[in-house]
Amino acid sequence: MVRREPGLVAHLRSMGVPTAIFVTANDGSFVSDAHGQPVHLQTFVDGVTVKQNRAPPWLLTASAEMLGRICTALAGVRGLPEGFPAKWFAFDARRKELEYDALIIASSRNRKLTSAWRREMADDLAFKRSARADIASIKLGPRTFTRGATHGDYSVRQVVLNGEQIAAVVDWSSASRQPYVWEVLRSYSYADPASADARIDLDGVRRYVSTFLNYVSLTHRDLANAADLYYVQLLRSTYGYRQYLLEGAPLELLRFARWRTRLCRWLRKHRGDVAAALSDIAPNRA
Questions:
Q1: What does the alpha-carbon distance between residue 254 and residue 122 come to, in Å, rounded to a whole number?
Q2: What confidence tens digit (pLDDT) does each residue in 181-229 have?
Q3: DSSP characters for 147-211?
Q4: Which of 59, 82, 206, 261 could form a disulfide with 55 if both were Cys (CB 3.0 to 4.6 A apart)?
Q5: Predicted model pTM
Q6: What is the DSSP letter of 82?
Q7: What is the rounded distance in angstroms from the CA atom of residue 156 to the CA atom of residue 196?
């Protein structure tokens, strides 16, 4: 995707989406090799970024609008990777159990953390292991959702601000075709201060999704199943735990993983409430 990113960004800029500008090398190309890895340079974007769950009210609206503009601008783009492909929905429960078990063992052996942290991390992983049975009762598939080309990792952390204006959206390396509702709900949960304590504010998410719907059409089925998809994705993910325990990633990534698990726990109890809230704004019953 690194080699495709400059062309994708050029297209986005031509469609009015603010991005950084890629810098050409001496040979006229945008991508060079450094120690066997493809790299590129981009112009500096003057501005600031917002930390997770620190978006002010104006940015919540602007963020949803920008995501809608991005999806509209990318509507005709072909050849991007497919997120949540058919094989993703063919869940291998036993393999995931073994992955959780290995991480639980690794957490018990980690001496960089306090005993309380080790217990809490093991409890997180044990929760995910035990809750895996929920997946069998949630009937989702690749045809459940409206999907299309999008940023793929959109959040307020990928947005550069200049005053009360979005100066650029950065990091397009994850651009892909995704279920739109997943990117919308995920980006909302990363932005709203109400989600800092790992929950979804029903009025807030309704406003955010309603703003997005001004740009992209979604069905009643999309919105009714959005929380289930996000819940299953969070439940199956070991992101952050695996990197910290097995790859030496910084503690901040583990904190992020634990926040996601708390949100996962909340969704287990309240995803029906989210579904009802979003179904209320569905444009039709399709």
A1: 12
A2: 999 999 999 999 999 999 999 999 999 999 999 999 999 999 999 999 9
A3: EEEE-SS-SGGGEEESSSSEEEE---TT-EEEEHHHHHHHHHHHH-GGGGGS---HHHHHHHHHH
A4: 59
A5: 0.94
A6: B
A7: 13
